[in-house]
Specification:
InterPro entries: V-ATPase_G. This protein starts with a helix and ends in a 15-residue tail after the last helix. By secondary structure, the chain is mainly α. The chain has one helix at residues 2-105. The mean pLDDT is 89.
Length: 120
């Protein structure tokens, strides 16, 4: 009976060792799959980033000409407005100076309307 118990114990120990090996292999497999998943995700992210960068560069290249034409149109419009303002300044500067001088130099002395005459 002792040999039978010894064999049973030995069988249990071997089964436990086998179970530990299976668990260890499962852990290693899981770690390996996680690493593979991370590298695959990293690769997919890089591919997606590159495709989006290419799309952006294509968009930028297709719209670069329109940006330059819009900028040229804005510059032209600004120059026209600037020339118009300068022209109006040249036309009206003498009138403005004359009005200012008339207000400052030509003073008509008179009593203030709130001043009351004394004795009246």
């Amino acid at each position: 009976m002792a040999t039978q118990q010894s064999q049973s114990i030995q069988t249990l120990l071997e089964a436990e060792k086998e179970a530990a090996k299976v668990v260890q292999q499962a852990r290693q497999y899981r770690v390996q799959r996680l690493k593979e998943a991370r590298t695959q995700a990293s690769k997919e992210i890089n591919e997606y980033r590159q495709s989006k960068e290419q799309e952006f560069k294509a968009f930028e290249a297709s719209h670069a000409g329109s940006i330059q034409t819009v900028q040229a149109a804005i510059d032209k419009e600004t120059e026209v407005k600037r020339a118009e303002i300068t022209k109006q300044y040249q036309q009206n500067k003498d009138k403005v100076v004359k009005k200012l001088l008339d207000r400052v130099v030509l003073v008509e002395p008179e009593l203030h309307r709130n001043l009351k005459k004394v004795g009246a």
